[in-house]
Amino acid sequence: MEIIKELEQTFKKGAVVDVRSGDTVKVHQKIKEGNKERVQIFQGLVIRTDRKGSHTSRITVRRIASGVGVEKSFLLHSPLVLKIEVTKRSKVRRNYLSYMRKLTGKSARLTSVDFDRHAVNNVRDLEAEKAEAEAKAAAAAEADAKAADKAAEEAKLTAKQQAVEEAHKAAA
User: Fold this and answer.
1) What whole-number distance in Å separates Cα of residue 68 and Cα of residue 99?
2) For the segment 33-88, what is each residue's pLDDT rounded down to a tens digit?
3) 13-46: b or e for each residue (b if 16 or more CB lie within 10 Å)?
4) Cut 0.90: pTM above it
5) Nearest to 24 by CA among 49, 44, 48
6) Rounded to an integer, what distance in angstroms lies between the CA atom of residue 90 and that of residue 72?
7) Is 52 helix (H, G, I), strand (E, B) or coil?
């Protein structure tokens, strides 16, 4: 049992934002399309939090998009979830806000609570930042190597072109 807990700890992020039901959040998620990566922001109301202390802790975020309710679940410790930013904190008395699905318009408003937005959102995972910096440095080195190879190939082609032009002039 202890071995399993140790293994689970390796998959946990060093620091995660304290997200509660009733919070309005912006979730920055990394999306891969083909060979390109982009960050998509999903903003909505947290209607559910599951397994808070576990490495499988999850939040369910709901928003209205084009008049249709859209819910998305995010694993807090997933490497695809880059950042969670709490924009508003509301007073709620339960963990699972399923009743919010039926409400629209003014009736769907929640009472706002004052909170220290900077303190809640200022969570830094130093290990993740270090790994990201190393990945960026590796990508930059790879790009430099490709640029150098391309420049060398370009130089070969121009030298070959000049040789052909000189041979053509000599023949004429």
Assistant:
1) 16
2) 888 889 899 999 999 998 887 778 899 999 988 888 899 999 888 888 888 889 98
3) eeeebebbbbbbbebebeeeeeeeeeeeebebbb
4) no
5) 44
6) 20
7) coil
